[in-house]
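Possible race condition, two jobs.
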Amino acid sequence: MKTGICTVKMAYAIRRSALKMVHRAKASHIGSALSIADILAVLYGQVMHFDPLQPYSQTRDRFILSKGHACVAVYAALAEAGYLSHKDLHTYGEDHSWLMNHISHKVPGVEFSTGALGHGLSFGVGKALAARINKEEWITYVLLGDGEMDEGSNWEALMFASHHRLCNLVAIIDCNNLQSLTSVSETLSIEPLAEKLLAFGWDISDIDGHDHRSLSQQLAQRSPTKPRAILARTIKGKGVSFMENQVDWHYKNPNDEELDAALKELGGN
């Protein structure tokens, strides 16, 4: 684990950059990006093994954003981690930019392009199995949305990972209870999620997804025989009071006044 990095400051920086990117591009999904900023700050600031100067090093840990629409948060995290410059973020959503509106593997530090939901965990299972076969020690982390758990392919991947005892695989589920147009519970209830994952043979933690101490401790833990799932209970739009728990911010982008107000809440300008 890394030391000397303030992940709280990093999470604030990720949120500020994500807001600016979405505002500049008049793009969507800022609520989804804000809910995962703390998870990304702890992963990139403390937990994962990587070298931004050697983005394709064989020993690197792999991170896969399955909820690819929340890409601005990952792009911002990559800038904080040294893969990108902050000037690169200004190109988000522009014609011919690598920084597409859904995450793209053309960006240094991005393992897999995702857009259609339900693909990231299956890909991550394949990476973890490859590491096992090749006797390599890197870890695969996959970040999914709770609404994304509606997709049946995730449950196939859960069974496969448990059957093969992929203890080098960590799934983080961003449980903010909102998706697209309404709540997850109204769209297609996935609860009791923890009990279901336990029944599928996974090692489970159910935590506050904005508590950096809990995130750091739980993301670093391993089961010797089971894949690990972390249910990160989060707030969609976290950090901006008028966006929190508001489903409108799945698709809405902030105007000039809303951006200024949001950045002031996050200690920026």
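Job #2 (started ~2 s after job #1):
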Amino acid sequence: MVKIKLPSTFEDITIKQVMNHGNKELSDLHLLRIYGNLTKEEAERLPMVLVAQAVNHIKEILNAPNQVHHKLINVDGVEHGFIPDWEQFTAGEFIDMETLCQDIAVNADKIMSVLYRPVTSKAGKSYTIQPYEGTKDAAKFHEVSAAYLYGALLFFSRIRNDYEMSGLQSLQNQTKAAIAALKHQRNNSAKGGRGIIGFFRRLIKT
């Protein structure tokens, strides 16, 4: 008799299962094979009533992902930390994330390797992580809970949006200041004009 071990909650779903699922529309049997860790032959020997019940359970879990963000996680016995300082988020990391997030399911392990890296030091609630060196070791995240990925992506999305909003607000404030300066110096000499041009150049850079 074939035994099925189904995930009880979203936390039981692994990064590897998410990658195997991908973005494809799958049959019930294929879903059961992925999330029940069954071979094709094992899945085909199951009664359809049992298949239907199992697949309904799987779909309920997939439709209710955990939204909790975890700053520290365990990967193969090694503590990994989520990026602790967004001021240090490099251009390379951002470019990789933008590219990888175009297909989150397929690149799930690589995304985790950008967002989580081994902790190098801790002091209270603060910690530092290893510098980013690419995604070559992404396979170590295959058995990690997909709940960590989901929570991390939600947090990353909020952080990025906050930075963008902060940038827009800053740009708006500087624009208002520029307009005010223009009004104040509208009758001034060319020297004053050059000052405004310099201000706008700094504004464009910002």
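The CA atoms of residues 22 and 175 lie 44 Å apart.
Logs attached separately.
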